[in-house]
Design goal:
The protein has one helix at about 5-20; strands at about 35, 40, 45-55, 60-75, 80, 85-90, 95-105, 115-125, 130-140, 145-160, 160-170, 175-185. Helices cover about 10% and strands about 55% of the residues. The protein has one domain (about 30-185): lipopolysaccharide transport protein A fold (Sandwich). The chain is built from 1 helix and 12 strands; from the N terminus they run αββββββββββββ. It is mainly beta.
Length: about 190
Amino acid sequence: MLSPARLFALLAVLAVATGSWLWPDRPQPRPTNAISDIGERVVDYRIKGFDVTRMQAGGAPANRLHAELLEHFSDDDSSVLTQPRLVVYGNADAPPWQIDAASALVPPDGEVVDLRGDVLIVREAHAQRPPMRIETRDLRVRPDEDFAETRERVRVHSGNDWIDAVGMEAWLRPPSRIKFLSQVRGSYAPL
């Protein structure tokens, strides 16, 4: 048998639960703090100077993602990065790849980074190889695999050589390689 105090507490909880279920929904004021290209959204937190480094098993950096601003959206658990820079480290023999864009979208699982708009990929000169510069748009990067791809136009400059193409798949982890998908043309100056 319930004591009178416990019976009163149980009835009070049931009354509150029933009242809240029967109470008509009142309109809530609309949040005013974030607007994106897909409508009004609520930012639940912002990080200025966002910086994260993923390490290799041996303790050396694998890649580093930096952004001037990260805005996280609670409605779908995605994040938008402003001025992202992704640096993909290879081995000690080669300089890292550096990828810059104006903005990026990171979906909830964080497995990809969708760099939006103009994207610039650079790698400094090394081991008698000239620097490389790749210009494209809308690049999707899978940081855990050091893989990048786009279906947009691509322009590659390396020394006196150049390649134009539509679409690209790039494996940035050594041994690095790039596959051009269509409409490939270029100029190669032998050494």
